[in-house]
Each structure stands twice: as C-alpha cells, then as structure tokens.
C-alpha cells in the first residue's frame, strides 16, 4: 500500500507540485511570522531589562504595596550585607543600589515635578545598554553633583549639557533640602513616560539630599536572561526570611506581560487561519484528482480491493505529500528567514516609547515543529472527505469512466 501510494503522488507531477506549493507556502508563512513574533518578544524583553528594570529587584517587604505613600519606612538599612549575599549566586554579574525620591527641579525660571533615582553610575552603565544618550555623556562615579536627565525633562525645562538645576526634596523627617546639580547628559529609555519625569544623580548625592545612608532597592544584573527564574529562587531562599521581597523582571513589567499575551493570541489565530486556507487549497486539488481517478478506483474495487483500503490509500498519499511539503516548507522558511534577517525590518517605536528597532526573523524550534505539523495536518484533514467519497463509489458507475 505504501509503495503504491508513493508511486501515485508522482503520476501527475503538475498537480503534486501545486499541492506541495500550497503546503510549502503555508509552512513558510508560519515560520516567518513565528520568528518575527519571537524576535519582538526578545527585543522587548531585553529593552525592558536593560533600560532600567534589571533581571531581579530586591526590596523591603511591603515596599511595592505601600512604598509610594511612605517610602522612608521601607528602606534597606544595610545594603552591603544584602549585596554580599546576592553576589555568590550563579549567573549574577553585578548588584547595584538605588535610592528613589521625588520633588521639584528648578532651572531658575520654572519648576517641574520629577521622579529621581540615586544610582551607582559605573554599575548602571553595565545594565543600561538599552538607554540612548541624546546629548552629553553618561553619568560617572566621579560626578559628585552631576545629573543625567530624561529627554522630556530637558525639553520641559530647556536644559542642555552644562546647564544647572536645583533639586528640592523633602527628607524623611519632613525637612526641605536643596542641592544644585550640573547636567552632564540627556538620556532616552524605552519608556517615554519615564523620560518625561526622570532624573538620575549619584547615590551619594541622593543620600545627602535625603539625609540617609540607606537605599530603597537593589538591582541584580545577570549574565543570562534565561537564568532569571533560577537566580530568583536562590535569592528568595536567602532573603525572604530576613524580611526582603525578591521580584523577577517579568513580574514588574506589566506592559511586557500584556503585550506577550496579546501577540500569542494573535499568532494562534494566524496559525488557525493558515490551517484553514491550507485545508481548502489542498482539498480542491485532491477533489480534482479523485474525480480524474474515478475509473482507477473502480478498477481497484473490481479486482477485490476493499473500500476502507481505498480510503487508506488516498489518506496515505496525502500524508506523504504533507510530510514532503512540511519538510520542504521548513527548508524554504529557514532560508527566507535568514535572508530577511540579513536585511532587517525597520520598525517604528512601540506604544509609549521613543525608540524604534530593527526586527529580524528568529529561527526557533517550536515554530519549525508547529509549522511542519500544521502542514501535515492540513494535508491529512483535506484528504478525509475526498477519500471517503472515493471509497463509496459504485463499481459499475466508476468503471464507466474507463471507457
């Protein structure tokens, strides 16, 4: 039966080529679209991590829920001790401290509400690979009273590198403290909303402003994003009993989680549409072949072949076509993905961002397997009704087609 089915698919080469072309096109479309979606996930993930979130963040328990109302109650008093616990964890590349504050920035003419961070500049430079400098230079550890400001802050206050601004901050005790800073650079991150209000100053200057040696959070940078869950679990085992909360980046990035969920549903719908189109295309070709082979099936029934064997023959022929089409589609899809990736696809900034990117087509195993399976299933499903109709032909009527 297998030998007969294999020989039958090459009897009418033009029709076989047409069927294979439909399957190959569908499989290639799934590979290219799946690779594009996967690249979107990866680039969005890395931009989210390397703009400011890091891979893991450590806070005092309760800070994420109540820290906005009373941040002074949730300070990490001994950050160095926590850093010493985190650094030996596998895949940890660097641990950096941050002290958050809010207040007013004044350029001598106008005030602007800002959200600020006291950071360790040289360590932050390792993390902020997705942060773009619009003007000036990056903040450095040697900038005792230097400040890096978001693009929106620079526009609102008409500031340039070299300009001076005064920060007015309320200390945890309720006093008002001010310090003057010189703008050293203007940055742009993945989030436009953040850039419209954000400034960064050295950690020591922020601690002087707030009269505290403590910090609000510790940011962990890993050498491999795929190790995030493993490192998070290790950090939780070390720190949660001591009153700390450990959060991986994906629990803090609400926009990323919702975007991934949306794209996955869209890609699932696309796969279903491609499957339906493949079934209809292949079914049309098979119906034509069944009609032309009516006399052949009548002869096979007349010489003693059973009706269920006719059905199996048609199903087997199209299963072979599905296997061949799926494999060829994977080859063509991989080649096309490589060509497109070599050229690149310029993409506009995502919603809420100022930064565009160049998309590529990633070759991912799950997309290749899913595409090949869909191509095979399409050929099999398309053959069921025509095969059933061929198996139920009346022998006498079918034999007349041989005259």
Automatic annotation (TrEMBL):
Keywords: Cell membrane, Membrane, Transmembrane, Transmembrane helix
Protein family (similarity comment): Belongs to the ABC-4 integral membrane protein family. LolC/E subfamily.
Xref: Pfam families: FtsX, MacB_PCD
Keyword Transmembrane helix: yes
Broad class of where this protein is predominantly found: membrane
Segments traversing the membrane: 267-290, 310-343, 363-385
Superkingdom, natural source: Bacteria
GO cellular component: plasma membrane protein complex
Example of a GO biological process term: lipoprotein localization to outer membrane
Locations listed in the record: Cell membrane
Classification of source organism: Bacteria, Pseudomonadati, Pseudomonadota, Betaproteobacteria, Nitrosomonadales
All copies of domain MacB-like periplasmic core, residue ranges: 16-237
InterPro entries from the UniProt entry: ABC3_permease_C, Lipoprotein-release_system, MacB_PCD
Species per Swiss-Prot/TrEMBL record: Sulfuriferula multivorans
Membrane topology: Multi-pass membrane protein
Boundaries of every ABC3 transporter permease C-terminal domain copy: 272-391
Name of the protein in question: ABC transporter permease
């Amino acid at each position: 039966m297998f030998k007969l089915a294999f020989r039958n698919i090459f009897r009418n080469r033009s029709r076989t080529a047409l069927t294979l072309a439909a399957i190959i096109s569908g499989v290639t479309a799934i590979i290219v679209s799946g690779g594009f979606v996967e690249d979107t996930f990866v680039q969005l993930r890395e931009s989210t991590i390397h703009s400011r979130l890091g891979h893991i963040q450590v806070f005092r328990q309760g800070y994420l829920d109540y820290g906005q109302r009373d941040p002074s109650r949730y300070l990490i008093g001994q950050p160095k001790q926590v850093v010493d616990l985190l650094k030996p964890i596998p895949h940890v590349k660097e641990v950096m401290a941050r002290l958050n504050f809010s207040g007013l920035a004044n350029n001598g003419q106008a005030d602007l509400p800002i959200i600020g961070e006291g950071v360790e500049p040289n360590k932050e430079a390792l993390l902020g690979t997705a942060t773009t400098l619009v003007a000036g230079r990056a903040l450095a550890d040697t900038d005792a009273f230097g400040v890096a400001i978001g693009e929106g802050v620079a526009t609102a206050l008409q500031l340039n590198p070299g300009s001076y601004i005064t920060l007015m901050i309320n200390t945890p005790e309720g006093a008002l403290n001010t310090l003057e800073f010189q703008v050293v650079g203007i940055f742009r991150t993945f989030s436009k909303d953040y850039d419209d209000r954000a400034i960064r100053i050295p950690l020591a200057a922020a601690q002087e402003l707030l009269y505290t040696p403590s910090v609000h959070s510790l940011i962990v940078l890993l050498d491999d994003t795929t190790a995030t869950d493993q490192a998070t679990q290790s950090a939780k085992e070390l720190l949660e009993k001591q009153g700390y909360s450990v959060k991986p980046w994906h629990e803090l990035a609400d926009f990323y989680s919702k975007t991934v969920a949306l794209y996955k549903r869209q890609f699932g719908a696309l796969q279903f549409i491609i499957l339906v189109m493949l079934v209809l295309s292949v079914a049309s070709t098979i119906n034509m072949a069944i009609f032309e082979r009516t006399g052949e099936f009548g002869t096979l029934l007349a010489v003693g072949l059973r009706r269920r064997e006719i059905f199996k023959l048609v199903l087997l022929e199209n299963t072979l076509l599905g296997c061949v089409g799926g494999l060829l589609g994977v080859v063509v899809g991989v080649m096309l993905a490589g060509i497109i990736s070599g050229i690149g696809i310029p993409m506009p900034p995502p919603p809420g961002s100022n930064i565009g990117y160049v998309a590529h087509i990633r070759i991912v195993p799950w997309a290749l397997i899913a595409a090949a399976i869909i191509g095979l299933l399409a050929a099999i499903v398309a053959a069921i009704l025509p095969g059933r109709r061929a198996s139920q032909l009346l022998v006498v009527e079918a034999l007349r087609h041989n005259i």
